[in-house]
Amino acid sequence: MQTGDSGREPESRTDGTPGDGPHDRQAAVKGDSQAAVSAAADRPHDTHPKAPAADLSGRTRPVRPVRRARVAVSVVFAVHGTASGTFATRIPWLREHLDLSPGWLGLALVFMTAGASAAMPLSARLAHRYGPRRALAWVSLACCAGLVLPPLAPSLGWLCLALFLYGCGLGLMDVAMNAQGVRVEEAYGRSVMSGLHGLWSVGTLVGGAGGVMAAHAGLDGRIHLASAAPLLAALAVAAARWTPGAEPAAAPAEARSRAAGAPEAAGAADDAEAPPRFALPSRGVLAIGLLGFCAVFAEGASMDWSGIYLADVTGAEPGLAASAYTAFACTMALARLSGDAVVRRFGPVATVRTGGVLAALGAALVVAARTPAVAVAGFALVGVGIAVVVPLCFAAAGRSTATAPGQAIAGVATLAYASGLAAPAIVGWIAQTTTLSVSFGVVTALLLGLVAAAGVLRA
Fold this sequence. Notes:
There is one protein chain. The chain has a two-stranded antiparallel ribbon. It is mainly α. The chain has helices at residues 22-30, 33-41, 64-89, 91-98, 102-119, 122-130, 132-146, 156-188, 193-216, 221-240, 252-259, 268-271, 283-313, 318-346, 348-368, 372-386, 389-398, 405-433, 436-453, and strands at residues 53-54, 60-61. Helix 2 crosses helix 8. It is built from 19 helices and two strands. 73% of the residues lie in helices and 1% in strands.
């Protein structure tokens, strides 16, 4: 139920959007900050919502509570990325600490992805029961706490269990923060999801840099992760307090009735049926998820095989081979940070189609490359081309009216995680039977699928 000045909106208003007129803008600025964000989050999922205020140039800008909510969600994205990057750099320490072969280590890492996939559908139920803000705080705490578990494992079996639990926290936090990002995007009235995912990418780079320094200093992995986890948890939990607090359980029609002051809408969120623990995605969500599948497949293939490709196919030295991943990660981060402006200018469908062309061109360069420079340029283009696809898929899933936003996002995220799990193995299997160049020929074909299937993002 909304509080503050939202109840003083004119009766002609039925969409719950703050700031459609001068009196509304004044009420949104003076009202309680949580109510302003909640009102924006509860309105129908239209494609071009109206912004709460306008500057002298005529461009719309959000009120202060909405801007504060965006900063808070941005911090949570950065924390999730930093945790992921920090853990990734200590995987070699884990392998050495437990004396694991590459095969056993790969099996253990599968449990992390399995945990994430298993836990993701529960995120919508947690948000329904406790509210999205409190749920985000708790799952962020669980994710950061799980970061401490893997280095404490005394054997392979315990490591698998620890990684499964850590993966559960990662998956829950992933869905919760993306659902909050969708609410902030709706309150803004323009694309912001790409920038949020850009900050996640920046977080991975920051966490990776810290991990590299810790590894070079010979810092024990248990001390490193145990030191990083409380700091990351404190940042995420503190930021979660300022994220949107709107209850997601109410359907759009109920939200409109509540905004109009209909008595029967009171308590609708309390009486709404909780999302199921597991449900097959709708046809629309499945189509969006398959689009994300193609992008994440190319991402996983590039992240795990770019260095090997340069070393085996182009004969690059180890230091130069590592630059392929650096180029890919940096261009992806930069493209995501600037992607919102591109999406606002050209729309999601045209942006993804253009990105698909660039990514497919980059993958084709990789296939044709016989020198390191050409291959590095190809991986960099792949990073640019796929950068905004996953953020736009989450945003489109969150706007779906067929199911609860968190449930739809969980469906897309599960397909994306499955792709990230399958990509390295499939690329390796094809390379084993043919060549790495043929493997990236398959990646090129999937990237062309982005061009063909981008229409699913159309409202």
